[in-house]
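To the wet lab folks,

You asked to see what we're planning to order before we commit. Fair enough. Below is the target structure as tokens, and below that is the sequence we designed to fit it. If anything looks off to you, flag it before the synthesis order goes out.
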């Protein structure tokens, strides 16, 4: 399985960005898709997860601001990020797997700064 992420960039606090991650290859093995992020000097942390059924899970720090969605026909997962804060600055990695993250995208930088 190969994952191609896109959509990162520089945005001002309070702004929005939308990340996308398209999967290709042995996609039948994918049940979970989602996003992790890693800020400089910090451990990688889970941001959001979505199952093939549509069940979602979010980190407390992004609840109410971020929304994850999935298009199973396109094998693509999206992360809509609103009301962005400087502390959201990180490299965002999409992932896919059956029960745990197994496949990873290349990472896309999100910088929130005035």
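Sequence we intend to order:
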């Amino acid at each position: 399985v190969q994952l191609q992420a896109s959509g990162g960039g520089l945005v001002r606090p309070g702004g929005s960005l939308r990340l996308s991650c398209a999967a290709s290859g042995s996609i039948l093995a994918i049940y979970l898709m989602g996003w992790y992020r890693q800020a400089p000097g910090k451990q990688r942390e889970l941001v959001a997860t979505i199952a093939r059924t549509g069940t979602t899970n979010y980190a407390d720090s992004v609840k109410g601001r971020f929304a994850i969605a999935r298009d199973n026909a396109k094998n693509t997962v999206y992360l809509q990020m609103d009301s962005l804060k400087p502390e959201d600055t990180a490299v965002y990695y999409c992932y896919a797997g059956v029960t745990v993250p197994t496949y990873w995208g290349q990472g896309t930088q999100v910088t929130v700064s005035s």
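Structural context that might help your review: The chain has a mean pLDDT of 94. The two ends are 37 Å apart (CA to CA).

Thanks,
Computational group
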